[in-house]
Amino acid sequence: MALALAAERGTRERPFIAAQANAQARSWLARPRWPAERLWLWGNAGVGKTHLMHAWARAQENLGRKVQWLQAGSLTLDSLGQICVAGVPWEGEHAPLMAPRLDIVIDNIETLADEAALLHLLNHVQHLNAGVAPRAHRLLLAARLPPARQVFTLPDLASRLRAIPAVEVQEPDDRLRSSLLLSLLAARQLVVAPTVIEWLERHLPRTAQALITSVDRLDALALARGVPVTRALAAEGLADLLTAVEEPAVADEEGKTT
């Protein structure tokens, strides 16, 4: 019986795959200081922004810092104008924002619904950092687009975000695509013949999201039918994604194959 359960990507457990596509982002994250202690990662879905931020968060925790992780869509202001995350107050004497040596990771900026809340958070963190060396709080933000290409209603928020260094996590190169595909298959415990894997690498779109979608579909289809992942199964289940798929040979009326 196949249950509709979301697959756990395990980004906190699996090692991040270092490659040229994410080299610039890794270089920035390795710096002990950022301009105004803020950094913006951007890139298409599936390129590894969240995974990379989890790896960075683990490194900060190992250094004794505290990391607060939130989704931009959960950020709001209450009736008193206080910052809340998923309805939980973040301001006050013992609230999360008052923790020393604090790093705040804000993922999926495109889901932000309360722009005033993010603006208030930026201003509050700037106030807390004033006169503190090294600054107590750092902000790491992630989105699919850089700040200059995001649309914000509040001019003050737009100007503050566009002043943040923005670093792109690029689509994977061939070596990274191969490693990512193998990692995704292993996470689903899918045993796939090397010839099928090579065929998928040749015919799938050259994006990380295409690999993720493909493995999700193959896992569901193989489980539903109780069969292994073959090239025929992949060609059927991924027909709308595959490019330049070879047509099977067919016999004409004289028995010749074409």
UniProtKB/TrEMBL annotation:
InterPro entries according to UniProt: P-loop_NTPase
One cellular component term from this protein's GO annotations in UniProt: plasma membrane
Lineage start: Bacteria, Pseudomonadati, Pseudomonadota, Alphaproteobacteria, Acetobacterales
GO molecular function: DNA replication origin binding
A Gene Ontology biological process term: DNA replication initiation
Gene3D superfamilies membership: 1.10.8.60, P-loop containing nucleotide triphosphate hydrolases
Xref: PANTHER family: CHROMOSOMAL REPLICATION INITIATOR PROTEIN DNAA, DNAA REGULATORY INACTIVATOR HDA
Record's protein name: Chromosomal replication initiator DnaA
